Amino acid sequence: MIDFRVAGLIVVFLVAAVSWLATCAAYQFDEVAAGVRPLDARYFNHLTVVTIGTGGAYENKARLGPSTAVAIERRMLLVDAGRGVADALRAAEVPVSQPEAVLLTSLLPENTIGLDDLLFTRWLDPRSAPLLLIGPPGTAEFARLLLETHGGGLAAMGEGLGVDPPGPLDVREANDGFQIAIGGMQVVAGAMPGLPTDTLAWRIYGGDRSIVVAGPGRAGEALIEFAKGADLLVAEAVSVPEGEVAAAQLELTEAEASRLAHEAKLHTPLEAIGALAHRAGVGALALVRLRPPPVFESQYSGVVAESYGGTILIPEDGEDLVP
To answer: Residue 164: which pLDDT band, with cuts at 50, 70 and 90?
Structure first.
C-alpha cells in the first residue's frame, strides 16, 4: 500500500533538489559570462575616481597593481597601469577600451608592467583612436621597445585573427607644468623629487572639481604645493615598524622589517601623509599602495587622523570615489 505522505515528501525533496541544481547552474553560467561578456562604457555624472588597482609592487591577489581611473561622463583616463590592469578594469565593470589615455607617474615597473596587458586586450575590443600614453622623459623609447618586443607575436596573432596588429601608441613626454585637455578634463603634470628617476604627479580638473594622483616617492613640499586646494588627493604611504615589538605586532620577520625600513627611504611615511594633506588643504585623502597592506582600515586611518581632519579613505580595488 502506498504511503502518500512519504511519496509527497519524496516529490518535494526531488523538486527542491532540481531547483537547487538549476539555481547553481544559472549562477555558474552568470559567473562565467561575467568574465567574457562585452561591457558598455560606464557613465559618470561628476568627476570620479575609480580605484582600479590599489596594490603596489608586491603580489597581492586582493589588491592588484597600481592604477587609478579618473572619469567624467564617458571619458576616462588612467594614472599608471600596474599588474593585472585589464582584469581589474573588468572587475570594476569598465571595458578595456574605455580609458583613452594612460598617465605615468614614473617608469618604475610597478607603474608600467600592465601596459602590454591593457594595450593588447583592448586590441581585441577595437577603438578607432590609438591609446594616448603620457609620461616622464624616456616614455617614448619605452613605448617603442614595448611594441617592438611584442612585434612578432602581434603579427602572428593578427594574421590568425584576420585583423591588423594594433597601431602605434600616441606618446607624449611631460615635464613640470605640462598641460593637455582630454575630453572634459584638463590635465596638469607636476614634477616630484625624491626618486632616482623622473617622477610626476597629475592634477585632473573636471567641472568644478580637481583630483591629484601621486605615484611612489617621498612626497614633500613639491606635492604640498601641487595639491593645494584639491578636492581629493590619491597618494601612497608606507608604515615602518619601530623596534622589535612593533615588527612583531605586524607579524614581520626581521628581514621583512629591515626591507620595509629601506623601502621607506623612497616612500612617504604614513605618519607624514596626514600632515602633508593638512598643509595642502585637500578635501579628502585616499591612500593606496599601502605597505604593508592593512588588515583593518583603522590600523592606518587612526594614525593619519592625528594630523589630518578631513575625510580619510582606504579604498579597495574597484571602488568609486566622488570628491
So the answer is: confident
- How much is the pTM? 0.86
Whether the pLDDT of residue 184 is over 70: the answer is yes
Per the model's pLDDT, the better-predicted residue between 219 and 79 turns out to be: 79
- H/E/C letters for each residue in the chain? CCCHHHHHHHHHHHHHHHHHHHHHHHHHHHHHHHCCCCCCCCCEEEEEEEEEECCCCCCCCCCCCCEEEEEEECEEEEECCCCCHHHHHHHCCCCCCCEEEEECCCCCHHHHCCHHHHHHHHHCCCCCCCCEEEECCCHHHHHHHHHHHCHHHHHHHHHHHCCCCCCCCEEEECCCCCEEEECCEEEEEEECCCCCCCCEEEEEEECCEEEEEECCCCCCHHHHHHCCCCCEEEEEEECCCCHHHHHHHCCCCHHHHHHHHHHHCCCCEHHHHHHHHHHHCCCEEEEEEEECCCCCCHHHHHHHHCCCCCEEECCCCCEEECC
pLDDT of residue 250: 61
The CATH number of the domain covering residues in 39-321: 3.60.15.10
